[in-house]
């Protein structure tokens, strides 16, 4: 059995790609092109996503129309900034490759790199 | 004879003088793993010494040197041979050391659990938003600045921006990923949590402040060294520069220190491991320093 998270990702992926409100039926039909999936399963998982605050919904006739709360890029930027420690409530153990630097520090970095390059040339 | 003055002196030396010595030394950046071990050994030594000081202050008349039982007693372990009806001094003598121990353990547990909860939440979101790359063994997020970080733990993730994948050469990308893998494989988040826990209990202590800062930097160096095993100095250094330079500081949140610069200079400079004799004696220091307070409390000559 596929993990719940994977189906969640498939649903979000479609809604972000289509970039318009969609019904559960449309999502099910699209997933069914590649593999069989039950309507009720997708409906349940879509509901979970709505409950978690990833989706908004509005009624059109008898069906619910779902839209992502934010674009993929907006989520990605928020996550990146959180992971890189730029948000205030930084979880202690996310380790960023390099931390933020001031302009002077960047200039010093450039100098160090240039000097190293010159030395390498002098050595060879 | 009461060991309180000697213990108090030792505690102060470890808490205030030792970090200064260690910060001034040149070897820590050449042997970062060993240096991290020494910082943590000092923290353990300080905690034990503080507990023993409290014990001997609260119990000035106590015979501290009655053999093994006395030693255990000194360590706050009441083995049942103590006075049958404990008075206030007795309770204090056991209570304060116990409180120090409990505070440290509770703080460590708190930090580990809080960080784990944050990471789980973050990981679930990353799995929804990002695209898993089997080739890179990483999750790629759409973000216009080259950047990378890792989520350590039982279900680890390396997160990298698509700008990094586009702008870095395959070798640079490999070095960055290797660096992050070293953090995950080394369980560096637990080492950080330990330093963080010690700091939140002894917030005013120079040793705690420096141990926390230095541990973070030394862990980066350990990961750098790991990446340098399979990649050249230049590849790692240029990757670090690409990522550092692209990040524009955002107002007041542009904290961070000169750590990237220290690391870059270290990667580019000659990296010579300390002489085996120095390395050996430092390792011996790291191993014995936690036991020193016991020796101060119960000098073998007097036992």
Structure, described:
The complex is a heterodimer of chains A (124) and B (303). Chain A is mainly alpha-helical. Chain A is built from 5 helices and 3 strands. Chain A has a two-stranded antiparallel sheet with strand order 1-2. The longest helix of chain A has 21 residues. Chain A is elongated. The relative contact order of chain A is 0.09. Helices cover 67% and strands 5% of the residues of chain B. In chain B, strands 1-2-4-3 form a 4-stranded mixed sheet, sandwiched between helices. In chain B, a hairpin with a 5-residue loop joins β3 and β4. In chain B, α6 packs across α9. Classes of the chains: A mainly alpha (124), B mainly alpha (303). Chains A and B meet through α1, α4, β3 and α5 of A and α4, β3, α6, α7 and α9 of B. β3 of chain A pairs antiparallel with β3 of chain B.
Class from helix and strand fractions of chain B: mainly alpha
Q: How many whole angstroms does the radius of gyration of chain B measure?
A: 23 Å
- Sum up the overall morphology of chain A in one term: elongated
What's the number of helices of chain A? Answer: 5
- Name the quaternary structure: heterodimer
Number of distinct beta strands of chain B: 4
Structural key phrases:
heterodimer; A: 124 residues; mainly alpha; two-stranded antiparallel ribbon; elongated; B: 303 residues; 12 helices; 4 strands; 5% strand; globular
């Amino acid at each position: 059995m596929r993990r719940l998270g994977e189906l969640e990702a498939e649903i979000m992926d479609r809604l972000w790609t289509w970039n318009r409100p969609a019904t559960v039926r449309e999502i099910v039909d699209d997933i069914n092109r590649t593999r069989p999936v039950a309507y009720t399963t997708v409906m349940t998982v879509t509901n979970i996503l709505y409950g978690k605050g990833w989706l908004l919904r509005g009624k059109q006739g008898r069906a619910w129309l779902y839209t992502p709360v934010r674009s993929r890029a907006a989520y990605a930027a928020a996550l990146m900034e959180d992971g890189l420690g730029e948000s205030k409530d930084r979880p202690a153990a996310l380790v960023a490759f390099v931390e933020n630097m001031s302009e002077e520090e960047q200039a010093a970095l450039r100098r160090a790199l240039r000097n190293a390059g010159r030395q390498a040339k002098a050595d060879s | 004879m009461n060991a309180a003055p000697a213990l108090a002196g030792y505690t102060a030396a470890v808490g205030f003088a030792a970090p200064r010595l260690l910060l001034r030394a040149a070897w820590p950046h050449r042997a970062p793993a060993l240096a991290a071990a020494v910082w943590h050994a000092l923290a353990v030594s300080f905690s034990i010494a503080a507990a023993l000081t409290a014990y001997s202050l609260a119990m000035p008349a106590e015979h501290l040197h009655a053999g093994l039982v006395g030693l255990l007693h000194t360590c706050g372990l009441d083995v049942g041979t103590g006075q049958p009806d404990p008075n206030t001094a007795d309770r204090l003598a056991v209570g304060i050391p116990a409180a120090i121990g409990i505070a440290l353990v509770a703080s460590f547990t708190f930090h580990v659990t809080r960080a784990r909860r944050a990471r789980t939440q973050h990981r679930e979101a990353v799995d929804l938003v990002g695209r898993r790359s089997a080739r890179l063994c990483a999750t790629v997020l759409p973000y216009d600045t080259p950047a990378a970080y890792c989520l350590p733990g039982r279900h680890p993730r390396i997160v990298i921006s698509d700008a990094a994948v586009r702008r870095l050469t395959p070798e640079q990308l490999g070095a960055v990923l290797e660096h992050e893998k070293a953090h995950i494989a080394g369980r560096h988040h637990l080492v950080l949590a330990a330093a963080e826990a010690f700091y939140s209990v002894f917030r005013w202590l120079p040793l705690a402040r420096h141990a926390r800062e230095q541990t973070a930097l030394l862990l980066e160096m350990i990961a750098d060294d790991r990446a340098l095993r399979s990649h050249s100095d230049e590849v790692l250094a240029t990757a670090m520069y690409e990522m550092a330079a692209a990040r524009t500081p955002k107002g007041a949140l542009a904290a961070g220190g000169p750590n990237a610069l220290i690391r870059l200079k270290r990667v580019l400079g000659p990296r010579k491991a300390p002489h085996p004799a120095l390395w050996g004696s430092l390792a011996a220091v790291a191993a014995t320093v936690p036991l020193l307070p016991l020796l101060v409390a119960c000098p073998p000559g007097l036992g």
